[in-house]
Please model this.
Amino acid sequence: MKTTQTLPLNTSTLSDDQMQALAQSFHDIAVEIGQVRLNAIAAGSKLTDPGIVQLQGYIFSLMNTASGFALQAANITLANADQSVNQIALATKAADKALDKLQNIDKAINIASSVIVLAMAISTKNPTQIIAASKAVLGAAGVV
Model:
């Protein structure tokens, strides 16, 4: 009978500083999405326009995510945490930069929804999901 050996995963814990940096990144993205929304309203979009309403929901969701990361008492344990954190940082910076001067509501919606999926992936603690979601954010931001 042949047995297979399972190698232990390189498990690390996100530090308080890393969690705070994630909280700041998600907050910054929410602020940028809010600015895109305000710019669209100033340009003539109505508060009841579906894209404007959707952006407002995403802002709320991202602000809640940022608050949750900032207030989280226990550290999140992730397999291969360094790689996951690097991917998250790259993705959130790309999203923030793409939103900085964005005028297109549809693109803002795509970026916002991909960042929300990233937030959910982080909560799963699964590095494969985190990396896939990070890549989706990079794609939505036009980096890849």
